[in-house]
Design a protein that fits this description.
The protein has about 325 residues and is of the alpha/beta class. It has helices at about 15-30, 50-65, 80-85, 100-110, 145-150, 165-175, 190-195, 210-215, 240, 245-260, 270-285, 290-295, 305-315, 325-335, and strands at about 35-40, 65-70, 95-100, 120-125, 130-135, 155, 180-185, 200-205, 220-225, 260-265, 305. β1 (about 35-40), α2 (about 50-65) and β2 form a beta-alpha-beta unit.
């Protein structure tokens, strides 16, 4: 799957950069690291990120000869995992896998303990999200038009107040006049169970993570970004329905967050040789045919964003001279349904 860069002036495509990296691995990659490396992840148990983190660690250890210990820091939607990494030594003994939706946490600064993602040393992003709104079969909502014209709010299960499943429905409301009401408190597999049981009408999330809802007769009624898959091809895009002065900034924000997927990082201030070595290892895992076969069997998207591109996108999103953060805050401050 190929995607256009959000900021195309970078000059080198991710596919080309990956190819160059693979060719150069044998010649310039540092010696295999020794000892134990801890992979900190903010993934909740039972979700797709949980399984992906375990799979990545298994194959990273196989390819590098290291012992990779996975530690879960599930509180606060992953922001505490990022805070822990921000205080860790930048010696390669600790890396992290963070959900890109933490960008919303930092931009909104809703707590005193933000992840400060722009300070971390990015290794790369794996698995661009196909962000969609899925409703259950029992909801009787057959299209986004039906949803917009519905008199009562549409209840959506979400994890935390700063998660994509909570923030993005409020952006949709701000841009379309919909009446989505995200309810936090459904982490990991609990979100899908809430929809399947009828406790919620639907959810916003990554298409693959919502597959249990589709298997039970649910339907995609809105695509939030521009990656189209067969299961969502008939649904309208948010870009085709959005209006208002914040339209461009918020569509860019959702697309950028979705493009980064699962972000792998080192602590701030990692020395350039160490950073280059870990970026090569990330490329090595993604290019490995055994890993790719295992990931594909679990329907994980392996579209990759290079570490330097992740850094550039993050700095763009946190540039307070742009309209992105004020637009997000207006969407979050709008009257709730």
């Amino acid at each position: 799957m190929m995607r256009r860069s959000l900021w195309p002036e970078s000059g080198v495509t991710r596919r080309a950069a990956l190819a160059l990296g693979i060719v150069g691995l044998a010649a310039c990659a540092p010696a295999r690291p020794k000892g134990r490396t801890t992979l900190i992840t903010g993934a909740a148990s039972g979700g797709g990120n949980d399984a992906f983190g375990q799979l990545f660690a298994q194959h990273l250890g196989r390819l590098t000869g290291q012992t990779i210990q996975v530690e879960f820091e599930t509180r606060a939607g992953g922001s505490l995992a990022a805070s822990r990494l921000a205080k860790a030594p930048a010696d390669g003994s600790i890396i992290s896998m963070l959900p890109s939706k933490l960008i919303y946490e930092d931009q909104l600064a809703t707590t005193g303990e933000t992840s400060d993602l722009a300070r971390l040393s990015s290794l790369g992003g794996i698995g661009a999200d196909r962000r969609v709104l899925v409703v259950s079969a029992r909801s009787a909502i057959t299209s986004f038009d039906v949803l917009v014209n519905r008199a009562t709010p549409v209840i959506l299960a979400a994890s935390t107040l700063s998660s994509g499943g909570y923030v993005e429905p409020l952006i949709v409301n701000h841009l379309t006049g919909a009446k989505l009401k995200p309810i936090p408190g459904y982490a990991g597999g609990a979100r899908n169970l809430a929809v399947l049981s009828g406790e919620a009408d639907g959810a916003v999330g990554e298409l693959a993570s919502l597959k249990p809802l589709l298997d039970a007769g649910g339907r995609v009624i809105l695509r939030l970004n521009d990656i189209v898959e067969p299961a969502s091809a008939q649904a309208p895009s948010l870009a085709s329905l959005a209006h208002g002065p914040d339209q461009a900034a918020l569509l860019l924000l959702i697309s950028a967050v979705a493009s980064l997927g699962r972000m792998f990082t080192l602590p701030p201030g990692a020395p350039p040789p160490l950073l280059a070595g870990w970026r090569s290892r990330l490329d090595q895992v993604v290019a490995d045919p055994v890993f790719r076969a295992a990931a594909t069997a679990q329907e994980f998207n392996l579209d990759q964003t290079a570490g330097a591109e992740v850094d550039r996108i993050l700095h763009q999103l946190f540039d307070r001279s742009t309209p992105v953060i004020p637009a997000l805050r207006r969407a979050m401050a709008a009257p709730r349904v």
